[in-house]
């Protein structure tokens, strides 16, 4: 007889949440959801990384200035900000499965459409729409996978989810370098028809989250999903109650639905101003550092004299070593705790980025030596690889930590709004970075300023928010 979960009183029936949390992990059940969700996350990373590779290519083809080229990334990232805001609330209303399917379709269709754009402005419009779908993928994906994962495995599984990100970014770099040898930038974008095919697997193999169904009051459907999970994992069949999950807020009419986004953010701040403000600050600081490197590294390396394919491969090496960072994060978040892992790795990544810029000795953004006339020093290579490792320890720890700070009814929107805050910052950053900071201050000072923001965010987390290791999802 399986012992009752700790949250259940002696002799009392367990809650549905307790049953799901106590299920054994099986690769053909929760593992399949992890893999399908991870593939969506992989394509998400692929599309974001694509911005950095498109900037030098389109700059030459369309004769773009640095400020104009920055709109390639800005349009996509601002779209992601809007998407993160919209899709988090949608997932809390229509369900994780349906929202995840729609995000995949939107960003796939408009990325492919961008390959046919005849000018920079129409191209940026399509990148905005692709980003709109992309912005919803991460918060919806984490909510979906996390709510199926048993409590004792949840930290490692959610952290391991981010392992798909460096895989996607690395595949983007390697595939882009190869496609560039046989064709133009159009081929780099046409590859993104593949995520649309993933929606077939989502519809066929992933049930709706029982935690969402319970919060939405759809208890019969939740019971059916839980019963299937119990049977598939070989757990002991038993009865359960529907207590312990907060109900979803329901919009009563069209006007309330139109104002749902505003209502979500108000409710987040009412729930906890400290959690919400700290989550937003952490997302902004950590992801600003990461996107600054990912978006501009090919352009920075080309400014230092590397050829396009060499710059792509160095960027690919930076993202590839991040796979080891994700493994390290997955091992450390349960043993050490979310806050220590996130804080230490985020600060270390910032230091490494400053180190890289000092080793590189790059000039201003406007000074571009002939491609292929320079190579990276060993110090610069070590610094950018160390950055790639530490930042991919920090990001999965960040996603795991913030997703656990909120209760189920606010998890999608809480994560989504924190992500949206970072997307606004990272969306504006390419314009500021390419047009102002890099040309006027140089790379070391620019990256030092970003690192200072990381230190402030980590200090706020250390002082203001709790450790979530070992907590049950509320």
From TrEMBL:
<keyword id="KW-1133">Transmembrane helix</keyword>
<dbReference type="InterPro" id="IPR005828">
    <property type="entry name" value="MFS_sugar_transport-like"/>
</dbReference>
<feature type="transmembrane region" description="Helical">
    <location>
        <begin position="414"/>
        <end position="438"/>
    </location>
</feature>
<keyword id="KW-0813">Transport</keyword>
<feature type="transmembrane region" description="Helical">
    <location>
        <begin position="185"/>
        <end position="206"/>
    </location>
</feature>
<feature type="transmembrane region" description="Helical">
    <location>
        <begin position="310"/>
        <end position="333"/>
    </location>
</feature>
<keyword id="KW-0472">Membrane</keyword>
<feature type="transmembrane region" description="Helical">
    <location>
        <begin position="378"/>
        <end position="402"/>
    </location>
</feature>
<feature type="transmembrane region" description="Helical">
    <location>
        <begin position="31"/>
        <end position="49"/>
    </location>
</feature>
<dbReference type="GO" id="GO:0022857">
    <property type="term" value="F:transmembrane transporter activity"/>
</dbReference>
<dbReference type="GO" id="GO:0005886">
    <property type="term" value="C:plasma membrane"/>
</dbReference>
<feature type="transmembrane region" description="Helical">
    <location>
        <begin position="157"/>
        <end position="179"/>
    </location>
</feature>
<protein>
    <submittedName>
        <fullName>MFS transporter</fullName>
    </submittedName>
</protein>
<keyword id="KW-0812">Transmembrane</keyword>
<dbReference type="InterPro" id="IPR005829">
    <property type="entry name" value="Sugar_transporter_CS"/>
</dbReference>
<dbReference type="InterPro" id="IPR036259">
    <property type="entry name" value="MFS_trans_sf"/>
</dbReference>
<dbReference type="Pfam" id="PF00083">
    <property type="entry name" value="Sugar_tr"/>
</dbReference>
<feature type="transmembrane region" description="Helical">
    <location>
        <begin position="280"/>
        <end position="298"/>
    </location>
</feature>
<feature type="transmembrane region" description="Helical">
    <location>
        <begin position="69"/>
        <end position="90"/>
    </location>
</feature>
<feature type="transmembrane region" description="Helical">
    <location>
        <begin position="444"/>
        <end position="464"/>
    </location>
</feature>
<feature type="transmembrane region" description="Helical">
    <location>
        <begin position="102"/>
        <end position="122"/>
    </location>
</feature>
<feature type="transmembrane region" description="Helical">
    <location>
        <begin position="340"/>
        <end position="358"/>
    </location>
</feature>
<feature type="domain" description="Major facilitator superfamily (MFS) profile">
    <location>
        <begin position="33"/>
        <end position="469"/>
    </location>
</feature>
<dbReference type="InterPro" id="IPR020846">
    <property type="entry name" value="MFS_dom"/>
</dbReference>
<feature type="transmembrane region" description="Helical">
    <location>
        <begin position="128"/>
        <end position="145"/>
    </location>
</feature>
């Amino acid at each position: 007889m399986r012992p009752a979960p700790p949250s259940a009183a002696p002799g009392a029936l367990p809650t549905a949440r307790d049953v799901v949390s106590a299920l054994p992990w099986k690769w053909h059940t929760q593992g399949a959801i992890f893999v399908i969700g991870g593939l969506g996350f992989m394509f998400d990373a692929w599309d974001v990384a694509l911005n950095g590779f498109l900037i030098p290519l389109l700059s030459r083809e369309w004769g773009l200035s640095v400020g104009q080229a920055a709109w390639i990334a800005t349009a996509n990232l601002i779209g992601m900000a809007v998407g993160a805001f919209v899709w988090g609330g949608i997932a809390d209303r229509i369900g994780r499965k349906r929202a995840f399917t729609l995000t995949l379709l939107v960003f796939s269709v408009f990325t492919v459409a961008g390959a046919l754009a005849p000018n920079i402005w129409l191209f940026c419009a399509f990148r905005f729409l692709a980003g709109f779908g992309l912005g919803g993928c991460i918060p919806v994906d984490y909510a979906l996978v996390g709510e199926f994962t048993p409590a004792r495995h949840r930290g490692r599984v959610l952290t391991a989810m981010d392992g798909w990100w460096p895989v996607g970014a690395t595949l983007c770099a390697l595939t882009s370098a190869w496609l560039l040898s046989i064709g133009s930038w159009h081929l780099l974008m046409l590859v993104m028809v593949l995520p649309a095919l993933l929606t077939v697997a989502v519809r066929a193999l992933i049930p709706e989250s029982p935690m969402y169904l319970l919060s939405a009051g759809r208890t019969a459907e939740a019971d059916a999903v839980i019963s299937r999970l119990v049977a598939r994992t070989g757990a002991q069949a038993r009865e359960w109650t529907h207590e312990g999950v907060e109900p979803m807020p329901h919009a009563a009419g069209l006007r309330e639905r139109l104002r749902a986004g505003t209502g979500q953010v108000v409710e987040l701040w009412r729930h906890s101003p400290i959690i919400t403000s700290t989550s937003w600050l952490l997302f902004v600081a950590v992801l600003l550092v990461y996107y600054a490197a990912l978006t501009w590294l090919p352009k920075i390396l080309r400014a230092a004299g590397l050829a396009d394919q060499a710059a792509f491969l160095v960027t690919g090496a930076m993202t590839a070593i991040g796979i080891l960072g994700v493994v390290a994060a997955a091992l450390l978040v349960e043993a050490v705790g979310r806050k220590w892992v996130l804080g230490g790795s985020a600060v270390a990544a910032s230091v490494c980025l400053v180190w890289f810029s000092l080793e590189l000795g790059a000039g201003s953004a406007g000074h571009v030596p002939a491609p292929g006339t320079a190579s990276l020093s060993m110090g610069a290579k070590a610094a950018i690889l160390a950055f790639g490792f530490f930042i991919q320890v920090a990001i999965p720890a960040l996603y795991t930590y913030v997703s656990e700070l909120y209760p189920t009814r606010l998890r999608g929107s809480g994560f989504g709004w924190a992500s949206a805050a970072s997307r606004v910052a990272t969306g504006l950053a390419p314009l500021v970075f390419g047009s102002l900071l890099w040309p006027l201050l140089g790379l070391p000072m620019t990256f030092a300023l970003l690192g200072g923001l990381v230190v402030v965010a980590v200090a706020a987390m250390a002082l203001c928010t709790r450790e979530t290791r070992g907590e049950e999802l509320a």
